[in-house]
Amino acid sequence: MTSTQQRPDVVLPTLATVYRTRGSVELKEFFRQRESVVFTLIFPVILLVVFGAVLDYDIGGGVTFTQYFMAGVIAAGILGASLQNMAISIATERSDGTLKSLAGTPMPKSAYFVGKIVQVLVVTLLIIAILLAVGVFAYGVDLPTGSDWITFAWVTVLGSASCTLLGIAVSSLAKNGRSASAMVTPIALVLQFISGVFFLFSQVPVWMQTVASFFPLKWMAQGLRSVFLPDVLARQEAAGSWELGRVALVLGVWCVAGLLLCVATFRWQDKAAG
Question: 219, 246 in Cβ contact below 8 A?
Fold first, then answer.
């Protein structure tokens, strides 16, 4: 009589489990990096505190600059959590070999991107919650009401998605994490200056307004201003209205364009190592 050696069945984790695990890993890695946490989470708060203290004046209709600035600083925070964070972190992981190692494991490659999306989502929500808390309790900023929350949600989702995809694509343009930071950070600051983050958008020169209109940050800030400001201030916008339909269209186009750029440019290792 021959005995058959029974081998226990190997239970493979479900795709949902892999995605959840990868998301947890990305969050742990992010919060272990003090520089990333300070720059991404704390820097927008510092901007709100400084500008709120120095430029707390009435811009018309009983609205203070801090109320106006809230939309812009949230948009800038989304930009930092998505485009800047993705471009720098992915470029760093590519240059230190992390991406190449992950690509050689049984883990579905899609799990890497899902983990990054989870990280961006959680960090973005934290930034928004912190900024709203500071704005409300320190500067008396009025929270959105009613359907404004719906507008707030879709502008945030579309803006975050478009900037995340652009960040993934931009990461392939940098040689390493250090060069990515040197390349992306000045561009982000320039966009903030011309997109109505630090100043009233109506005070920005027309040619700068035109340049800003080609990028998602301007439309994120404009969509969020419609949430925090009374409709009477829509007359100060370039088109004299909030143009929420165009905001959705432009951000949606950037999502599609960003996805196409990711597919065309993303690589798992440096060209030199290729």
Answer: yes
Assign residue 56 a region (left: φ > 0; alpha: ψ between -120 and 50; beta: otherwise): beta
Q: How many CB atoms lie within 10 A of CB 93?
A: 20
- Tell me which amino acid residue 116 is: K
| Alpha-carbon separation of residue 254 from 108, 173, 188, 219, 260 (angstroms) | 26, 18, 16, 11, 10
The set of long-range contacts for 139-142, using a CB threshold of 8 Å and a minimum separation of 24, is: 139/48, 139/52, 139/56, 139/64, 139/66, 139/67, 141/66, 141/67, 141/70, 141/228, 142/67, 142/228
**Contact predicate 114/22, CB 8 Å:** yes
Cβ 102 vs Cβ 29: under 8 Å: no
Q: Identify the segments of the chain with pLDDT beneath 70.
A: 1-11, 271-274
CA–CA separation, 51 vs 53, rounded Å? 5
How do residues 97-106 score in pLDDT, each as one tens digit?
Answer: 899 998 888 8
